Amino acid sequence: DTAPKTAISLSGPVVSASPRSYITSQTQINLTSSDTYSGVKFTSYSINNLSQGNYGSPFTLLKTNLDGIYTISYQSQDNLEHLETLRNSQVYLDNTPPTSQLLISNPKKESGNQIYVSSMTEFTMTAADGDGAGVGTQKYIIDGTESDYTTSFNLSAYPQGAHTIKCYSIDRLG
Question: What pLDDT digit, counting tens, does each position of 151-171 carry?
Fold first, then answer.
């Protein structure tokens, strides 16, 4: 004569960390309950103390939700009316990509929205993900060709003339 046991699992983009896991709006949140004797009558859950009713299938946190900490509370009751103690799990919703910046060393000359550099001018990329899951990958694109960023670079392998350089980062959630 014991209450059911309910477990939470996450599938899809997830970075497990203590005390919470980082997820996106594509992450499926699954509740699995079991009861050895009489069977599970229902599992109920809430998100940030707002009741979602009885659990029926995996759910996600909507993209319209703001990034931040969400507490998922859940419990099950068996067919003999034994109610499980309320359980809580925290997740951090992270739908915001990292910010990226390309730093250009000297020698350089800025004129309007153009920057003139030498073939030896170093380009260094920085990225930050605020309270999110953390920066996973940094990329830069020179004249349409994408490369992984691992260390500063210059344009010594490129012919003299105008070049377009862009950069972006992907967090650890992908």
Answer: 999 999 999 999 999 999 999
